[in-house]
Amino acid sequence: MFDTVLVANRGEIAVRVIRTLRTLGVRSVAVFSDADAGARHVREADTAVRIGPAPAAESYLSVERLLDAAVRTGAQAVHPGYGFLAENAGFAQACAEAGLVFIGPPASAISLMGDKIRAKETVKAAGVPVVPGSSGSGLTDDELAAAAREIGMPVLLKPSAGGGGKGMRLTRVESALLDEIAAARREARASFGDDTLLVERWIDRPRHIEIQVLADGHGNVVHLGERECSLQRRHQKIIEEAPSVLLDDATRAAMGEAAVQAARSCGYRGAGTVEFIVPGKDPSQYYFMEMNTRLQVEHPVTELAVSIAGAGLDLVEWQLRVAAGEQLAFTQDDIAITGHAIEARICAEDPSRGFLPSGGTVVRLHEPQGDGVRSDSGLTEGSEVGSLYDPMLSKVIAYGPDRATALRRLRAALSDTVTLGVPTNAGFLRRLLDHPAVMAGELDTGLVEREADALVPAGVPDEVYEAAAAVRQADLEPVTAGGWTDPFSVPNGWRMGGEAAPLAFPLRVPGLEPVTHTARPGAALVTDDRVSVELHGVTHTFHRAGHWLGRDGDSWHVMDFDPVEAALSGAARSGVDTLAAPMPGTVTVVKVAVGDVVAAGQSLLVVEAMKMEHVISAPHAGTVTELDVTAGTTVAMDQVLAVVTPDEPEQEGQE
Question: What global pTM score does this model have?
Answer without folding.
Answer: 0.86
